[in-house]
From TrEMBL:
Protein name from the UniProt record: Disease resistance RPP13-like protein 1
Keyword field contains Flavoprotein: no
Pfam hit, one: WHD_DRP
Signal peptide: none
GO biological process, one term: defense response to other organism
């Protein structure tokens, strides 16, 4: 026999709750020194998630494996740039990576090929965590 259950509509998280979730996901297993250095960036990233728990978890899981402040800043910039596009917008991945490069989001050292590889890595990390959908 089938039954229906009541639907629960979840609202957005507060900035504080976004930070608590980000902290739990991104800082699990890190030393206190890592936490102190990266906390400010983590709070800014959590606030940019606009109360969306999936976005917080996705970014927290990405940042969990980034060890330096520079890597966190780079990921924050690429994520922020990507968030400008409206839902269902068709994005040319190569063009977006070139824009990240032109804006200095992928760093300023290394060859063009290395920067493109870094951009593809960041894009693929976001895509694997469902930030982008239906990639062709």
């Amino acid at each position: 026999m089938m039954r229906t259950t009541e639907t629960h509509h979840l609202g957005q998280l507060s900035d504080h709750d976004c930070w608590l979730l980000m902290k739990r996901v991104a800082f699990d297993g890190r030393s206190e020194a890592d936490y102190d250095e990266l906390q400010e960036i983590g709070r800014k990233i959590a606030n940019k998630c606009k109360g969306l728990p999936l976005a917080v978890k996705v970014l927290g899981s990405l940042l969990r494996f980034k060890d330096t402040k520079e890597e966190w800043e780079t990921m924050k910039r690429c994520f922020s740039y990507s968030a400008f596009f409206p839902k269902d917008w068709v994005i040319d991945v190569d063009m977006m990576i070139r824009m990240w490069m032109a804006l200095g989001y992928l760093g300023s050292t290394g060859s063009t090929a290395n920067l493109e590889l870094r951009g593809k890595e960041f894009f693929n990390n976001l895509r694997m965590r469902s930030f982008f959908q239906d990639v062709v």
